[in-house]
Amino acid sequence: MFSENGRKVKIAVVGLGGRGRGWVETFLKMKDADVIGICDIREDRIQETLKIYQELGVTCDVMTTTDYNELYQNPEIEAVVNATSWQVHHRVTIAALEAGKHVGLEVGGANSVQECWDMVRAAERSGKFCMPMANVCYGREEMTLINMTRKGMFGQVVHCEGGYGHDRRPQIGWGDELGHYRQLNFTKRNGELYPMHAIGYISKILGINRGNRMLSLISVSSKAAGQHEWYLEHRPDTPFANQQINQGDIVNTVIRLANGETVMLTHDCTLPRPYSRSGRVQGTKGLWMEDKGQYYLEGAKAFEGEERACWHDFEEAMSEYEPKMWKEFRASGKSGTHGGMDYLVGRAFVDTLQKNAIPPVDVYDAALWTAITCLSEDSVSTGGFVAVPDFTNGRWMDRGEDVCTTAFSLDREV
Ligand SMILES: NC(=O)c1ccc[n+]([C@@H]2O[C@H](COP(=O)([O-])OP(=O)(O)OC[C@H]3O[C@@H](n4cnc5c(N)ncnc54)[C@H](O)[C@@H]3O)[C@@H](O)[C@H]2O)c1
């Protein structure tokens, strides 16, 4: 699974910030992948990326350009990994699909429901896949959970929660100097800006787009105080200190599903806090809570003869229910950023290309998961539930053969 001895795939990376450069390095280190094209609107980012080739001693011919359309005309490139800023994610993806390239789309949210439909149509017309690079789906904890829920250990799952709790105030606050898109997005928008880390694995647990679907959602935003205070403290003499910030510090989004479950996402990036995705999976026989690092199964008692219910460390569950993929990954001696999940999702992408297979997550997931952002903005502004489109056009009820069956599948026992 991790021998890296398949057909050598030829990839391009668009958007060469921290994440895009990470992808270049990850793929260049794989024996069966080449990064033969790189693109960023900033020439300095291209130059920084070329240093990675030198550092790794890679001598392959690499096309460099500031225009992604030019890159897409290169017939040698079979797939594009899109790590651009959120505003251009979908248009960079749609152009690649229309040019006949498969796409790996970095996590982020959409600007409009229309661009999500355009992305779906472009993939359907071209026959090329668009796979969200949803790395958290391949986390050890998350994959163990997917396994445990599939074995029915939590009973019928009724409710899931997750989020993005990451103190991003410095990155937002220095965004003009860093050239980082978060600053503008947090100033102008107000909604669930970063849904994918949580909704990815939750979708797998609840079968979303594969037997289940999202019906509607409602988002409620708190006031925006954290970033403003940060500006007052760190950049008091700049216009930022007096600027209105739209993004609420905490945005909670509740999603209703066709099979009756609820999902709550929490976006939390402008208050002081340690990092957490704050997951919770709860069913008729037990629950898991990420921030506790623990889980509970009905009947587990603190002491023999006592009635007090008892938590168990999730570490124990991981050693018992860790999926085969993770056992093999650890045994392979390979490593990857974000605790290994970046390598695994990168491998899933390469494997899908090599086998010309159905990707583990697809364009319908990409459209739905990213649409949460613009739908939540609508909900925050109107104060009510908004309907969630069915990007599969009814196929969610029975995907038939249209499901990934490779070793990287997230839809069958692994
Ligand atoms: N999966 C994860 O764990 C993870 C972690 C960090 C970032 N990300 C995602 O990766 C993406 C990039 O994040 P980042 O932190 O590297 O941001 P960044 O701002 O550092 O990099 C984005 C790059 O895209 C370039 N760009 C913008 N428009 C472009 C265009 N039209 N053509 C070519 N290049 C263009 C910018 O110049 C910039 O260099 C985002 O979608 C982010 O959400 C994912």
- CATH topology (fold) name of the largest domain: Dihydrodipicolinate Reductase, domain 2
Could you give me the name of the CATH homologous superfamily of the largest domain?
Answer: Dihydrodipicolinate Reductase, domain 2
Indicate the percent of residues in helices. Answer: 25-40%
Oligomeric description of these chains: single chain
Number of helices: 15
Under CATH at level 1, the class of the largest domain stands as Alpha Beta
H/E series: EHEHEHEHEHEHEHHHHEHEEEEEEHHHHE
Parts with pLDDT < 50 across at least 5 consecutive residues: none
Described by the principal axes of the CA atoms, the overall outline is globular
Describe this structure in words.
It holds the Pfam family GFO_IDH_MocA. Residues 143-301 form the Glycosyl hydrolase 109 C-terminal domain. Its cofactor is NAD(+). Residues 9-131 form the Gfo/Idh/MocA-like oxidoreductase N-terminal domain. Belongs to the Gfo/Idh/MocA family. Glycosyl hydrolase 109 subfamily. With 414 residues, this protein is of the alpha/beta class. The protein has two domains: 9-135, Rossmann fold (3-Layer(aba) Sandwich); 137-325 and 363-397, Dihydrodipicolinate Reductase, domain 2, CATH 3.30.360.10. It contains 15 helices and 15 strands. The protein has helices at 18-28, 43-56, 68-72, 89-98, 113-126, 140-150, 169-173, 175-178, 182-188, 196-206, 226-234, 314-321, 324-332, 341-355, 363-382, and strands spanning 9-14, 33-39, 63-65, 79-82, 102-105, 130-132, 157-165, 214-221, 250-257, 262-268, 280-283, 286-289, 294-297, 312-313, 386-387. A nine-stranded mixed β-sheet has the order 14-13-12-11-7-10-9-8-15. The chain has a six-stranded parallel β-sheet with strand order 3-2-1-4-5-6, sandwiched between helices. β11 and β12 (286-289) form a beta hairpin. α6 packs across α12 (314-321). The protein is globular. The two termini are 12 Å apart. The relative contact order is 0.16. Nicotinamide-adenine-dinucleotide is lined by residues 14-20, 39-42, 45, 68, 83-86, 88, 92, 106-108, 135, 180-181, 338.
